[in-house]
Amino acid sequence: MTLWSLPHPLVLASKSAIRASILTGAGLPVEVAPADIDERAVEAELTGEGATPANVADALAAAKVEEAAIAQIGRLVAGADQTLALGSERFTKPADREAGRRQLERLSGRVHVLSSGVALAMDGVALWTEVQEARLTMRTLSPAFIEAYLDAAGEGARLSVGGYQFEGVGAHLFEAVDGDFFTILGLPLLPLLAALRRAGAIAA
C-alpha cells in the first residue's frame, strides 16, 4: 500500500533540495520541475499595492505553480516561496559572502519574520494557496563569529533568505524560534498534506 493515490508523482516547481527532501521524507513521490519566473517582477507588481511579506510569499508560490503547471497538463504541481522581513525591511538571498555578512549584521540580536507560501496548481491554474509565518530571534553575533559561520556554511549561506540554512549550521545563529519547523525551512508541510488529502492525492 502506498500513501500516494495518483498515477503520476507530485511535480515540485522548485529547485530547492530541502523542499524536495521534505516531501520525499513524508513518503510522497516527487518529480522536480523548477518554474522559470521573474521573482523580482512579481514582487515589483505588489510593492505599489502595500503588499505585506506574506502577500509576496503567497504571490510568488502561486506564480511558480501556475507557470510550471502549464507544461504539466493533467499533473498536480506544488510550489513554495519564502520572504524574510525585519520590520518593514525585506531580505532576499545574498548574492555573495559580503552581502551575507551584511544581512547577518542587520539581523544580529533582533527578531525577524519568515513568511512561507505554498500552493497547488493543475493545468496552469492555482487551486489552493496558504501562508504560514514564523518568528526567529537571532543571537547577538560578534564579527568573529559571523566570519566563522560564513566559513562553515560555505555556499549554503547563499541558498536562503537571510544568509542561513536553519536545518544546518544556521541553527547556531539563533536563541529562540516561534513557529513550525517546516515553515522555517520554506515549505509548510502540514497544510500542504491536508490540501493533498482534500484533492484525493493521498490517503485520508
From TrEMBL:
The keyword ATP-binding does not apply. Keywords: Cytoplasm, Hydrolase, Nucleotide metabolism. Coiled coil: none annotated. It is found in: Cytoplasm. The keyword Cell cycle does not apply. Its EC number is 3.6.1.9. Gene3D superfamilies: 3.90.950.10. It is an enzyme of class 3 (hydrolase). Its cofactor is a divalent metal cation. Belongs to the Maf family. Nucleoside triphosphate pyrophosphatase. May have a dual role in cell division arrest and in preventing the incorporation of modified nucleotides into cellular nucleic acids. PANTHER family: BIFUNCTIONAL DTTP/UTP PYROPHOSPHATASE/METHYLTRANSFERASE PROTEIN-RELATED, BIFUNCTIONAL DTTP_UTP PYROPHOSPHATASE_METHYLTRANSFERASE PROTEIN-RELATED. This is Nucleoside triphosphate pyrophosphatase. It comes from Methylopila musalis.
